[in-house]
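Researcher: Go.
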Amino acid sequence: MGNSFWGTGPGLDAFVNYFGVLAGVGSAILGLALVTFTLQVAVWRTNPLRQAVAITTLAELSTPVFYGLLFLTPRHPWHVAGYIVGALGYAVMAFHVIQFMRYKATATSFDKKQMWGILVTVISFSIMALHTCGGSGMLILSSPPPISSIRSR
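Model: Structure:
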């Protein structure tokens, strides 16, 4: 049947292709972001508020890659991924808010809009953490109805 903590079982095997694509596409987008940050190093390296934006962006883009890769490992330990991603996500957001508060006097309108964007990040990481703790994980957000419910109609 499978271990309920790890979420193993025949139902999760149907998501292997989905998480494989998620990890592949996420890796490509993360790679493009890294190239962009490398080519435009002067834009973010000299400004502490832009450094916080760069770190937050990389953390947000790393999430689907990490989540997908951890799901693809044997036994699908997606609960562990949810805990790790949630904790690191909150740490990155706290760092971003602290940096903004420290350098608020030099903040531009871009930096202020980025702080509003933190709300979206808080909501998405909270959903991930809550669903993982509730035992249903990210599968609730992306799962089609079970085959048995379709057949019974």
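Model: The chain has a mean pLDDT of 77.
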